[in-house]
Design goal:
Layout (H helix, E strand, L loop, with lengths): L1 E7 L2 E6 L10 E10 L2 H9 L1 E2 L2 E2 L4 E2 L3 E9 L11 E4 L2 E2 L5 H4 L10 E2 L12 E5 L3 E3 L6 H5 L1 H13 L8 E4 L3 H12 L5 E5 L2 H9 L4 E4 L5 H8 L5 E6 L4 H10 E9 L12 H6 L3 E4 L7 H10 L8 E6 L3 H10 L6 E5 L1
Parallel strand pairs: 13-14, 13-16, 14-15, 16-17, 17-18, 19-20
Antiparallel strand pairs: 1-2, 1-6, 3-7, 3-11, 3-20, 4-5, 7-8, 8-12, 9-10
Helix pairs in contact: 1-11, 4-5, 4-10, 7-8
């Protein structure tokens, strides 16, 4: 099969590799058709590592994926060749306390596509457990199936953030995850949703996807603008999706008393100075979000029903043999890029 293999920083090669084979009776062989480019893919390409995950040997990137079932193991009953499926990329151990409590995203032994040393899905074929493959209905395309992964992140964040009908919400960073958080919050009944970003293109898209107000952080003071829009109260829930130190600090300022800050964005700055006194006096809840668990079915329903629009977020498409261009586009054209899709 053909695959895009990362050998080192900015060293990506299209190679011919052996086709994977089904070895367990509950696995399926999937012909990959669509893979979204995630910020983590770009970071591994440009830096060779994210935190403790280091590219130490050749690695296939990609984890936002969908395809068509080619073959099923003898124990698989819910899928058959020809079915369109979205692949949930993290396979937990199924035995630890986190798996048994339903929070398998916290499993310390999870094997996640494109998290070194586990290969990802910028490849023509992948073998995957059938119970982590979700059959797509006829009205959901393969590209939309691939977008289930980032949508699940945003939806998981909205659920953990406790978004309620009528809540006022601010989203700091209107990239793919921010826009998914926006739509997830709206699907849960949020009232006024305010989106912040540096790029007008993304803010325009945020408005089309349901934002009530947008703020260009390069042109105005984010904290002052949000406090004015909320009559000095602040918002009920803040989503920090930019992964920047400044937005983490702003979140504390704009959250109302008793509000919640949902941290999703991963940035290069691991430690950020924080106003602990304000967090205490305002009784703020800080909620981290790590991937998702038990979210794919709900996310799929949101796409199938039309309550969430992921197709509008796809701004460009590339074939597998041009995947390196796909990885560079978010870096070189951030002012016009939201989600890049690789077609295989």
């Amino acid at each position: 099969m053909k695959a895009a293999v990362l050998h080192g920083i900015r060293d990506l090669r299209i190679e011919e590799l052996p086709d994977p084979k089904i070895e367990r009776e509950d696995d399926v062989l999937v012909r990959i058709k669509a893979v979204g480019v995630c910020g983590s893919d770009v970071h591994f390409y440009t830096h060779g590592r994210i935190g403790d995950f280091v590219v130490e040997k050749p690695l296939i990137l990609g984890h936002e994926s969908a395809g068509v079932v080619e073959e099923v193991g003898k124990g698989v009953k819910n899928l058959k060749p020809g079915d369109k499926v979205a692949l949930e990329p993290g396979i937990p151990c199924r035995k630890c306390e986190f798996c048994k409590s339903g929070r398998y995203n916290l499993c310390p032994d999870v094997r996640f596509f494109a998290a070194p040393p586990v290969d990802g899905t910028f490849a023509e074929y992948v073998v995957h457990p059938a119970d982590f493959c979700y059959k797509l209905p006829d009205n959901v395309s393969l590209e939309e199936g691939a977008m289930l992964e980032p949508l699940s992140v945003g939806l998981h964040g909205a659920i953990l953030g406790g978004v309620k009908p009528g809540d006022e919400v601010a989203i700091l960073g209107s990239g793919p995850i921010g826009l998914m958080a926006l739509q997830s919050a709206r699907s849960m009944g949020a009232g006024k949703v305010i989106c912040v970003d540096l790029y007008p293109f993304r803010l325009d898209l945020a408005q089309r996807l349901g934002a009530c107000e947008t703020i260009n952080a390069g042109e105005m003071d984010t904290v002052e603008a949000i406090m004015e829009l909320t009559n000095g109260r602040g918002v009920d829930v803040v989503f920090e999706t930019a992964g920047a130190g400044i937005t983490s600090q702003q979140a504390v300022e704009i959250a109302r008393r008793g509000g919640t800050i949902v941290h999703i964005g991963l940035g290069s700055q691991e430690a950020v100075p924080t106003n602990i006194v304000k967090i205490i006096f305002k009784e703020l809840k800080l909620q981290g979000v790590h991937r998702y668990a038990n979210i794919y079915p709900r996310a799929l329903e949101l796409i199938s029903s039309g309550d969430v629009d992921v197709r509008s977020m796809i701004t460009s498409r590339y074939p597998l043999d041009r995947v390196e261009e796909a990885l560079r586009e978010p870096i070189e054209r951030p002012d016009s890029t939201v989600k890049v899709m690789v077609e295989i």
